[in-house]
Amino acid sequence: MTHRHNFSPGPGILPASVIAQIRHDLPDYADTGISILEMSHRTPVFEALIEEAEANLRELLAIPRGYRVLFLQGGASLQFGMVPYNFLPADGVADYLAGGTWGKKAVEDARRCGRVAVRFDGAAVGYRRLPKWSELELTPGAAYLHATSNETIEGVEIHDDPPALGLPIICDASSDFLARPLDVSRYAMLYAGAQKNAGAAGVTLAILSEELLARALPDRLALMSYAVHAQSRSLYNTPPCFSVYVVTLVTRWLKDTVGGLAAMQVVNRRKAQALYETLDASSFYRAHADVDSRSVMNVTFRLPSAELEQRFAAESEAAGFIGLRGHRAFGGLRASLYNALPESSVTALVEFMREFERRA
User: Fold this and answer.
1) Is a pLDDT exceeding 50 seen at residue 1?
2) Confidence band for 3, pLDDT divided at 50, 70 and 90
3) Are 301 and 332 spatial neighbours (Cβ–Cβ below 8 Å)?
4) For 260-359, CATH number?
5) Which residues contact 1 (CB under 8 A, 6 or more apart)?
6) pLDDT for 11-28, tens place per residue?
7) pTM exceeding the 0.90 threshold for the entire prediction
8) Residue 214, exposed/middle/buried by CB under 10 A (0-12, 13-18, 19+)?
9) pLDDT band at residue 329, thresholds of 50, 70 and 90?
10) What is the residue extent of each domain of the chain?
11) Backbone dihedral region of 177: left (phi > 0), alpha (psi from -120 to 50 degrees) or beta?
12) How far apart are CA 207 and CA 195, in angstroms?
């Protein structure tokens, strides 16, 4: 098969060694005589897998005592509704950052549950940047502040952890989760769909402080209750067993092969720098995001015309580059540089871009 360079925004590329392990385990996992796809979540074998996944996450992120790790379903999009459903009282208000498409979607669902105050609207700046924490004017007594750390579609990212802001901070970290170290103690809750850097689509990871869990509203629907999932150790109903298994493999890879999140961050910054330097050195290509908000994970850029962008997308696909078309609602081009993307793929893309510019 012709080698492909997978720049897909999600589901994203998985490590080659993880794919190889899946292939090995698929027909018969750990000499159980059955596939990982048909294994009961109530067996000791699966319980060992989910316990290892949690232990690996705790080690990689240095998760402090007093935090619970949950394996949920429904993607990050379900959390847009679950967060206010659990933590926004009827007489309260929640602050939100609407820095891009996913932040706006979170606002839309939160408004179906209660009162929302948008404290940053990316539309006002053409979705070219996200705010610094020091810029924010927050609502006194707000139930929480919801932020999206990396807007996958627009290619903008908040690069630092928040300071103490006087209210719980809840972060959708889907597309930069496990791409860099985080100070989990700065957040009341972090959540992320696994399909960017943590595994395969189907499982959503949530890290919640017990202090936030204690504030959850009572009498919530069981499957929509973080408290129920915490009490059940993520086994209230059948979890996405295969996806949890892949998270276990990916977190092993991050620990044992990469050497942890600080090492992963170095590689990711190097990949992004190579691509942004190529964009900045050219008058033909133009990076979308402001320099201090540029995403390390999702590099968005434009060409001089929509016609050239379509041609670039078509020719890059023919040359073996997958997923470079921008989101249908945003246009342009986008290269997603998730953890498992090898640096050689970025080198190949840079060479293709220079050759395309020369011929255009």
Assistant:
1) no
2) confident
3) yes
4) 3.90.1150.10
5) none
6) 999 999 999 999 999 999
7) yes
8) exposed
9) confident
10) 17-257, 260-359
11) beta
12) 17
| Fold (topology level) of 17-257 | Aspartate Aminotransferase; domain 2 (3.40.640)
Q: Around Cβ 16, how many Cβ atoms within 10 Å?
A: 11
Catalytic positions, written as ranges: 102, 172, 196
**Is residue 248 over pLDDT 90?**
yes
What letter would DSSP give residue 127? T
Give one DSSP letter per residue of 147-185, joined into a string: EESEETTTTEE--S-----SS-EEEE-TTTTTSS---GG
Concatenate the DSSP letters of all residues of 201-232 into one string. Answer: TT-EEEEEEHHHHHTPPSS--GGG-HHHHHHT
| 17-257 and 260-359 share one fold | no
Q: Which residue has the tokens 């997603």?
A: 336
pLDDT digits (tens, 9 = 90+) for 43-97: 999 999 999 999 999 999 999 999 999 999 999 999 999 999 999 999 999 999 9
Sole residue written with tokens 């509203």 = 217
